[in-house]
């Protein structure tokens, strides 16, 4: 299975903190609105069947549900999924959470979704190309796939590892492994090999002091990629 047990353990131990906006997941809470706006702008989520790969505690999944999407969220961290399901009782949203790998789901229900999202997940798996291929297989021809991850260069190491984990302590130490960061050109190559056409690559700027974020042309640290499945 395309999973790192240490990564599952790490996020499972923090599962109960997922919906606390001042916890280790504070940056996710801060950037989630702009991620949602970006996805909504390009897809119009109302009535769409959407798959959120690596959904964690459901922050993005629930957000897309508020736009009227029919959302399925999948993850391999059982404790985190339990938190996601529990939060639905508070929010009143409807999300179908499942404990399954994206590769297994691609075999079960190929070409079933209008939109597939996979955000902040690729840098945590041993084989990101496998995830990308499965995402491609799950989206309908002509459908869109959205990825986000971290670039691999000295600036990304300085900001995302040294700055965020050690200096500012925004994230627990060991959250990210720099060797698993992915350059935009590499991600684009994975997409093309999987049968996707890359339509946009945009940077995400996050200021931890003001807790403000914006889309930018600078992709040196955090970036988002949008692609469409070839007909």
TrEMBL record:
Sites where the protein binds S-adenosyl-L-methionine: 35, 54, 75, 119
UniProt keywords, alphabetically: Methyltransferase, S-adenosyl-L-methionine, Transferase, Ubiquinone, Ubiquinone biosynthesis
Keyword Translocase: no
Taxonomy, superkingdom: Bacteria
GO molecular function term, any single one: 2-polyprenyl-6-hydroxyphenol methylase activity
GO annotation (BP), single: methylation
E.C. no: 2.1.1.222, 2.1.1.64
Keyword Zinc-finger: no
Family annotation (InterPro entries): SAM-dependent_MTases_sf (IPR029063), UbiG_MeTrfase (IPR010233)
Enzyme category, top tier: transferase
Catalytic function, reaction form: a 3-demethylubiquinol + S-adenosyl-L-methionine = a ubiquinol + S-adenosyl-L-homocysteine + H(+); a 3-(all-trans-polyprenyl)benzene-1,2-diol + S-adenosyl-L-methionine = a 2-methoxy-6-(all-trans-polyprenyl)phenol + S-adenosyl-L-homocysteine + H(+)
Pathway: Cofactor biosynthesis; ubiquinone biosynthesis
SUPFAM superfamilies hit by this protein: S-adenosyl-L-methionine-dependent methyltransferases
Annotated PANTHER family: METHYLTRANSFERASE, UBIQUINONE BIOSYNTHESIS O-METHYLTRANSFERASE, MITOCHONDRIAL
HAMAP family (alphabetical): UbiG
Function: O-methyltransferase that catalyzes the 2 O-methylation steps in the ubiquinone biosynthetic pathway.
Family: Belongs to the methyltransferase superfamily. UbiG/COQ3 family.
Name of the protein described by the UniProt record: Ubiquinone biosynthesis O-methyltransferase
Record lineage: Bacteria, Pseudomonadati, Pseudomonadota, Betaproteobacteria, Nitrosomonadales
